[in-house]
């Protein structure tokens, strides 16, 4: 029994974009939470002022991931199949690295671990599907090509 | 020479393989034209061709016409399934001498 998953590139990009947005929202929430805790501690016990490094890291990461999410939605405009393949390969590498980092560093974030693993699997299946599509397209000739070849052969 | 050649009794056989696309057609045209000039007949062994595009077919059309002008022969031997499919799609399967 064989299963075939025809996952289109656009669904993979939309899924990756949404996953990035969720990750960005989570990091923003954690960043704001860390900032509020730091502020409260400073108010109650006094401190040197300034912003904690962890707050900056979380908010910068959140911004970077948000920009990445916007890129994913922009990539939906790409029609060339070979460019889509390169894009999906990069997406697969990115999600695989994120999955490994989450497993090693933050095992407690199981929701995001599952999300990144699902994104990796979807990217992988999408690449397989795209490769088939590229192969099928390669064996086709356009009407214009057929017309020009026949003209060259003096058949028309 | 980008492709292997074999000459048997003034008949040259060029053994094509892999993808025949825009990147390779210029070299193939030069080699095949030169070989056709030096021999009475030219044959393309296309059993190991994985893919051919319109530029590859146009080279074969040119060779067919050049061979006709020089009263020589150009033929395709054992085309792979992919080559046959593209030639049929282009409605040129009967145009060439296929052995």
Describe this structure in words.
The complex is a heterodimer of chains A (156) and B (99). Chain A has five helices and no strands. Chain A has helices at 9-45, 53-74, 81-104, 110-138, 143-152. Chain A is elongated and about 90 Å long. Chain B is an alpha/beta fold and 99 residues long. Chain B has one domain: Transcription Regulator spoIIAA. Chain B contains three helices and five strands. In chain B, strands 1-2-3-4-5 form a five-stranded mixed sheet. In chain B, helix 1 (22-38) packs parallel to helix 2. Chain B starts with a strand and ends with a strand. Chain A binds chain B through residues 138-141, 145-146, 148-150, 152-153, 155, and chain B through 51, 53-54, 57-58, 61-62, 64, 82, 85-86, 89-92, 95.
Keywords:
heterodimer, A: 156 residues, mainly alpha, 78% helix, 0% strand, B: 99 residues, alpha/beta, Transcription Regulator spoIIAA, 5-stranded mixed sheet, 3 helices, 5 strands, 42% helix, globular
Q: What does this entry show, briefly?
A:
Chain A is mainly alpha-helical and 156 residues long.
Task: State which percent range the strand residues of chain B make up.
Answer: 25-35%
> What separation lies between the terminal Cα atoms of chain A?
49 Å
Helix and strand content put the structural class of chain B at: alpha/beta
What is the strand arrangement across the widest sheet of chain B? 1-2-3-4-5
Report the helical percentage of chain A.
over 70%
How much strand content do the residues of chain A show? under 5%
The number of helical segments of chain A is 5
**Elements of chain A, N to C (H/E):** HHHHH
Largest interface: A-B, 12 and 16 residues
Radius of gyration of chain A: 23 Å
> What's the number of extended β-strand segments of chain A?
0
Give the averaged pLDDT of chain A, no decimals.
87
Structural domain count of chain B = 1
User: What radius of gyration of chain B results from the CA coordinates?
Assistant: 12 Å
CATH superfamily of chain B: STAS domain
Catalogue the unreliable spans of chain A: none
**How does the major sheet of chain B shape up?**
5 strands, mixed
> Counting H and I runs of at least 4 residues, what is the number of helices of chain B?
3
What is the helix/strand order of chain B?
EEHEHEHE
Give the number of DSSP strands of chain B. 5
Low-confidence stretches of chain B: none
């Amino acid at each position: 029994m064989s299963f075939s998953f025809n996952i289109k590139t656009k669904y993979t990009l939309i899924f990756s974009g949404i996953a990035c947005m969720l990750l960005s929202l989570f990091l923003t929430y954690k960043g704001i939470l860390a900032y509020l805790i730091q502020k409260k501690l400073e108010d109650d016990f006094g401190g040197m002022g300034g912003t904690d490094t962890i707050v900056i890291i979380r908010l910068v990461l959140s911004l970077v991931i948000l920009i990445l999410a916007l890129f994913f939605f922009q990539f939906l405009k790409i029609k060339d199949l070979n460019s889509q393949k390169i894009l999906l390969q990069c997406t697969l590498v990115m999600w695989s690295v994120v999955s490994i980092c989450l497993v090693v560093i933050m095992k407690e974030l199981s929701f995001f671990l599952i999300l990144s693993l699902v994104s990796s699997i979807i990217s992988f299946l999408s690449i397989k599907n795209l490769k088939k599509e590229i192969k099928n397209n390669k064996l086709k000739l356009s009407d214009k090509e057929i017309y020009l070849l026949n003209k060259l052969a003096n058949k028309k | 020479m980008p492709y292997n050649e074999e000459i048997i009794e003034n008949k040259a056989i060029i053994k094509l393989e892999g993808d025949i696309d825009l990147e390779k057609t210029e070299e193939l045209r030069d080699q095949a034209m030169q070989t056709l000039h030096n021999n009475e007949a030219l044959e393309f062994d296309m059993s190991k061709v994985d893919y051919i595009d319109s530029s590859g077919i146009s080279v074969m059309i040119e060779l067919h016409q050049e061979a006709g002008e020089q009263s020589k022969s150009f033929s395709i031997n054992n085309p792979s399934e992919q080559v046959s499919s593209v030639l049929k799609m282009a409605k040129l399967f009967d145009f060439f001498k296929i052995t």
